[in-house]
Amino acid sequence: MTTPFWRRPLVQAGLVALFLLLVGIVLYHLRQPLMPFAVALALAYFLNPVANGLERVFQRSFGTNRLLAKIGPRAAAVSVIALVLALVLLAALLFVVPAVYHQVSETVTKMPDYYRVVRARVEPIYQSVHDRYPAQTEEVRQRVIAAARANAPQFLSPITRFLGRAFGSVLGFFLAVLNLLIIPVFAFYLLFDMNHIQDGIKQMVPHRFRPYVYSRFGEVDRLLSAFARGQVTVCLILGVFYAIGLSACGVPMGVVVGFVIGFFNLIPFMSHVVGLPLALLLSWVDD
Fold this sequence. Notes:
Layout lengths: L8 H21 L1 H31 L4 H6 L1 H37 L1 H22 L1 H34 L2 H23 L1 H10 L6 H39 L5 H10 L6 H17 L1
Helix pairs in contact: 2-4, 2-7, 5-6, 6-7, 9-10, 10-11
């Protein structure tokens, strides 16, 4: 008996690949409006193990507590996480944001002084090299100026384009604020139903492939989620540590530089390549 054309393995694999390609194209063209929902989904996925642990704790307490029994263990766990994150955000608004604003404004006001310090320290070195190699020095200077003029718009255009889209109009400003509000609200709705969502995705797998797919993807999910949570946690801890340490040492914009160094720990060795020279440069011009 001849196998129908659409039941052939290669045909089915090709149809699946075509479907995934079409979905990828659609998601690419809708990436901007879908970005807040993608961030919310990632946040819910990141917090889901914590919610599951709290849910198990509350389940053991629900037998003797009528109030918790009415709320439900999952709702109680999500509510506790929301409360903790709200307190963390409030603490950041009360302590971190004013410190960042103070350090940035102070650095901006000192920019003329920094310029004079850099010029006073660099000019003797430049003049000494220029006296020995005048032609080569002038050629290097002209090349540096030309490269800076040619590449400055390229570096600044993404920032200006983003700011223009986000805050170029009243509508853009409200859309940016709306996106910031959508992320936490949608994240906690997803967090509440994350286990049901994962079970629904599992049900889409054909029965004959479930043991293999469940075992492989379960291991990938466990390792990948643990790695992501560990990396983000380490970056936050290091960011706080560097921010406090650099601020205590008097480095300009110590909080900002500290969190930048902590963020770049996501990429191996980038915290030393980017953060350390930046901290040393700011300390040098502020000396």
